[in-house]
Amino acid sequence: MNAIDQSGILAISTRLQRLGELLRKDGQQIYKAHGIDFEPKWFPVVYSLHANEVLSVVEIAHEIGYSHPSTISLLKELEAKKLVRSRKDKTDTRKRLISLTEKGQQLVTEMKPVWDLITAALTDLTNTSNNIMDAVNEVEARFREKSFFERAEDIRRRKSQG
């Protein structure tokens, strides 16, 4: 066991990032094995546009929970691959509206059976006594109640008063 594993809850962010990287790496292998040229990091944007047809950059960032600059970076990659297109909003020219191109829509059609396979494999992988999806949902709900920073500040204040 390495130092990060031994540090317990202190390294939860690092451990979740490591798990995310493993999932992305294997996800990319799954796409490649099915002849699909697709980066797993593009999934949240492509899936959100598939589900919503047209979204502004800000709406996409909110939908996927990424920062505006991270979202723009992903959109640039997807535009370079000709999977998404943008146009200015007719009512607000500062706003860019994003949608899947025909090529992007075709790619989604090709990926749907692979998404079913990925869902089945992830369900099998996470089918443990401490189901990670249940835990993620619970922690995200608690985050909405009070952030990690707010909790740390509350603990610091209580310690300094006591």
UniProtKB/TrEMBL annotation:
Q: Name one GO biological process term.
A: response to stress
Q: Which InterPro entries match?
A: HTH_MarR-typ, MarR/SlyA-like, WH-like_DNA-bd_sf, WH_DNA-bd_sf
Identify the SMART domains for this entry.
HTH_MARR
Q: Which Pfam families match?
A: MarR_2
Matching Gene3D superfamilies, A to Z?
Winged helix-like DNA-binding domain superfamily/Winged helix DNA-binding domain (1.10.10.10)
SUPFAM superfamilies attached to this UniProt entry = Winged helix' DNA-binding domain
Query: Which segments does the entry list as coiled coil?
Result: none
Domain HTH marR-type, chain residue ranges per copy: 9-141
Q: Which GO terms describe its molecular function?
A: DNA-binding transcription factor activity
Q: Which PROSITE patterns match?
A: HTH_MARR_2
UniProt signal peptide: none
Name of the protein:
MarR family transcriptional regulator
Give the taxonomic lineage as stored in the record.
Bacteria, Pseudomonadati, Bacteroidota, Chitinophagia, Chitinophagales
